Amino acid sequence: MTLQGLYQELSDLNETEVQTIFKMVQALKRTRVSPLAYIEELMNFRALGFDHEKNKYIHRMLITDELTNRYQILHGGVTATFIDTAMGSTVFQDMGDDTRVVTLDMSVNFLAPGENGWLDAETEIIKKGKTVLVMETKVNDERQRLIASASATFFLLK
């Protein structure tokens, strides 16, 4: 793909489609200076830190048109990605950025549609063993409506 070929592909896009491409390019460029992956940048992923009152790690993402399905609700795969990313971020905050971890298993319950605005994920470490971590996450929308809940098992790499 050349720039000329890309320009040709872009030439017949409508204004909304151009805005989508712009957001995607900006997210891609942010990965040059951010530790976050492209999808995390596209979700506007934010680690808000540990809430001592709730005893949970809090993360946030923004529902945008680019992340919705044909029904204009947050795509289930993006919801699961947000949860998985929040859990991974929880491990790094709790155990350090040099920790290496992979998801072994994750179960997500989709409870209500994510329609617009910001979502908050509250993650709790249930068990922290030598090689295995178990976590639970609840995702709420801006109205405090429960969108999804999940439990997952992570494996600590040596």
UniProtKB/TrEMBL annotation:
InterPro entries the record matches: ACOT13 (IPR039298), HotDog_dom_sf (IPR029069), PAAI_dom (IPR003736), Thioestr_dom (IPR006683)
Aminoacyl-tRNA synthetase among keywords: no
Gene3D superfamilies reported for this sequence: Hotdog Thioesterase
Keywords assigned by UniProt, alphabetized: Hydrolase
A single GO molecular function term of this UniProt record: fatty acyl-CoA hydrolase activity
Domain Thioesterase intervals: 72-147
Family per similarity comment: Belongs to the thioesterase PaaI family.
Protein name (Swiss-Prot/TrEMBL): PaaI family thioesterase
Species for this entry: Polycladospora coralii
